[in-house]
Amino acid sequence: MIAAAPGERLPPFPSPTHSEHGGNGTKPFNTVASTLARVRDGDDLHDPAAVMSFNPPRPTWDANRLGRTITTGGANAYHPSGLRDFTLRELACLQGFPEKHRFVGTKTKIRRQIGNAFPPNTVYVLYKHLHEWLLRQDNILRGREVLFLAMQEFRQIWKMSLWGRPTMM
Predict the structure, then answer these.
(1) Full pLDDT tens readout for the chain, 169 residues
(2) Which of 14, 28, 117, 119 is at 20 to 30 A from 1, Cα to Cα?
(3) Which residues span the membrane (predicted)?
């Protein structure tokens, strides 16, 4: 939620960063297929043989589109092949976590962390936009300095978990 005090302006919504085919300053959407292509055999939390398989298989679906919402329970979120569930690493990548991000806890707790997360890449774009807008409103900084400070702050925030302990990356 974004709010403003009485008498203050609400910030504008960020400009689009992606579109269906890219162009006009945007990149093409990250599809399920392009995201899953980054997951490698042997990656942490990626063991396709260990996830639930479906017998009979579920309907296949086109992975060259945007993904469905990732939830803590995983309802209706299964691999495009229709043969199995997603692995935890696949779900994490689809939710926007970096491939090297390390989770702590049981598989159930990790799935809950992934499903409850606000996608980190979305947070980055939103916070960078809000930070720049607020600084411009106060006439503090202009231009490239704003982007540099936002990126530095994001890196610091990303290194700390919600509980103030360094995350394992």
Answers:
(1) 788 889 888 999 898 999 989 999 999 999 999 999 999 988 889 999 888 888 899 999 999 998 888 888 866 789 999 999 999 999 999 999 988 889 999 999 999 999 999 888 888 889 889 988 888 888 776 555 555 555 666 666 555 444 444 444 3
(2) 28
(3) none
For residue 56, whether the previous peptide bond is cis, meaning omega lies within 30 degrees of 0, is: yes
Dump the DSSP string for 139-167: T---THHHHHHHHHHHHHHHHB-TTSSB-
- 18-19 and 27-28: which strand pairing? parallel
Residue type (1 letter), 26? T
Kindly provide the residue ranges of all beta strands, DSSP E only, lying in the chain, ordered along the sequence: 18-19, 27-28
Buried b / exposed e along 74-108 (16+ C-beta atoms within 10 A): eeebbbbeebbbbbbbbbbbbbbbeeebebeeeee
